[in-house]
Each structure stands twice: as C-alpha cells, then as structure tokens.
Design brief:
2 domains; about 30% helix; globular; binds S-adenosylmethionine; transferase; methyltransferase; SAM-dependent_MTases_sf
Length: about 260
C-alpha cells in the first residue's frame, strides 16, 4: 500500500484547487448519515477524508467529527477545520491502520476509498471499526467499489484537457483496467507534460455477496445497501439491481455491530 500517500498527494496537487470545495455530494452524505444513523448530533469518525469537504459539511450540520487522512490532501482539511466548523472538526494526518483514537464513535464512515490492499487488509480495518471505534449500536457507512461497472471500464482511456476557470490546471491522461481474477481495478494517471511518470491506484471491488463474506468474523453485519439514492435489504428485495449492474461504480454499504 506504499502507493497510497504518493498517489493521493500527487492527484491532490492536480485537483485540490478545483475539488476542495463543499458541494451537493457532501450534503448528500450528511443526509445519508442522518438516514442510516438517525437524527441528532453524533460523534463521527471519517476515514480517508481527502480534502475534508464531507467532514466539514458534517461538522457544520452539528456533528462532532474526527477525520483521518494520510496524504497531503489533509492540508485542505486542516483549512476547513480552522473555518466555520465551531471547533467540531479535528483532522489527524495519519495512516488509519496505525492511528490511535481514544474515544469510540456513533458512526464510522469511509466515503469513496474502501478496497485498498488485500482482503486481509480490509478485514483488519473492519475489525478496528467494529472492536475499537464503534460504540455498541453504532453504524458504519462504507462506499464499496462495484465490480460490474469497473469491469465494463476495462481498457477505457480518457484525455482530460485543462480547465483553469474551474481550477484544473493540468492536461491529464487516465487509463482504467480490470483484473477479473483478482476483482481489482487499476486506475492509472499521467500528466501530458511528464508521460514517463505514471501513477496508479488499485481498488479491490466487492459484490454485496462477497462483501457479506468478507465481513464474516469481523463483528459487523451488512444490514442495508444504498444505490443511486435507493436503500434496500441485501437479503431480500433488490430495487437497485439495474443500477448495480450497469451504472453505479460504487454503492453505500450500511454495517452494524453484531
Ligand atoms: C478516493 S479518495 C476519497 C477521499 C474522500 N473520502 C472523498 O470522498 O472525497 C480516498 C482517500 O483515502 C485516503 N486513504 C487511503 N488509505 C488510507 C489510510 N491507510 N490512512 C488514511 N487515509 C487513507 C487517501 O489518501 C485518499 O485521500
């Protein structure tokens, strides 16, 4: 997992000016947290918070948030914490596999990031969530990469032109591949000005059934899935299955402590 800090710090340099802004995506996540965890002010742990936009939106909504981020994107999160979050947002720039956090939380969330490393690594993280960080009755909200859509992107290439008005200064190339045996997507980027320096993120994707197997023995159970704004019980009805097959490259897994 050595690539994590390098990849997200380098891409954060490219995109931070454009993307370190609170948008509807962050407000939607605040609503998802309320939907799955209930109303009222919660103690929230956000893993891999990136620029800290969702953490800041959660703090502005009244939650008390600790956000952990290993890459240099954390400096944007620190800026948010200094602004109008009324002291409710703390940023910890550390690896979430190593960090020590003294108090338990009502909610642990990890938006758009779960799947780095091996299955054993994911289990290690899930066990920390269940045994160290979540209070009894607490809920974990974790975005999971959906293999059906990533597989369809195998071989795709994109050429992204700069758009300085929006804060995108770099001319970039992206190539996506998918390994159907390991169920891992590789997303490779390079700057047109420096084509020899290619950086990649590798993301293990899980179907809901595989995720349920992964959870075995971690102390967490998969209780709901939200796809494209619709929530269903993974054990019964599947109103979101068309979106899962064709459209949404990730889904929100709702997990509770057993
Ligand atoms: C795809 S980005 C998403 C960022 C943010 N959650 C969002 O939705 O905008 C995943 C983030 O997780 C962070 N991350 C990955 N592994 C980590 C680790 N072991 N410890 C702390 N942060 C980590 C990365 O540095 C990156 O900023």
């Amino acid at each position: 997992m050595d690539w994590v800090k390098t990849f997200y710090s380098a891409t954060g340099e490219w995109w931070g000016a454009a993307e370190a802004k609170i948008t509807d995506r962050d407000h939607d996540r605040v609503s998802l947290l309320r939907q799955h965890a209930g109303a009222g002010s919660m103690r929230v742990l956000e893993l891999g918070c990136g620029y800290g936009t969702t953490a800041a939106a959660l703090a502005a909504a009244g939650h008390v948030v600790t956000a952990v981020e290993v890459s240099d994107r954390a400096r944007h999160a620190v800026d948010f914490a200094r602004q109008a979050t009324h002291g409710r947002l703390s940023i910890v720039q550390e690896d979430f596999y190593a960090v020590r956090l003294p108090q338990p939380f009502d909610v642990v969330c990890y938006w758009d990031g779960f799947g780095v490393g091996t299955d054993a690594d994911q289990r290690r993280l899930l066990v920390r969530i269940s045994r160290e960080w979540l209070k009894p009755g607490g809920v974990a909200l974790i975005d999971v990469y959906n293999p059906f859509v990533w597989a369809r992107w195998d071989g795709d290439e994109e050429h992204k032109l700069p758009n300085p008005d929006l804060g995108y200064e770099h001319e970039l190339h992206e190539r996506t591949t998918f390994d159907p045996v390991a169920c891992v997507a590789t997303d490779t980027w390079w700057d047109a000005a420096d084509p020899a320096r290619k950086i990649s993120q590798t993301l293990r994707c899980y179907t809901p059934a595989d995720l349920a197997l992964l959870l075995d023995g971690t102390g967490l159970a998969l209780t709901a899935i939200t796809v494209a704004g619709r929530t269903f019980d993974p054990a019964t009805a599947q109103p979101g299955s068309s979106e899962l097959l064709h459209e949404q490259h990730q889904y929100l897994a709702v997990m509770r402590r057993l």
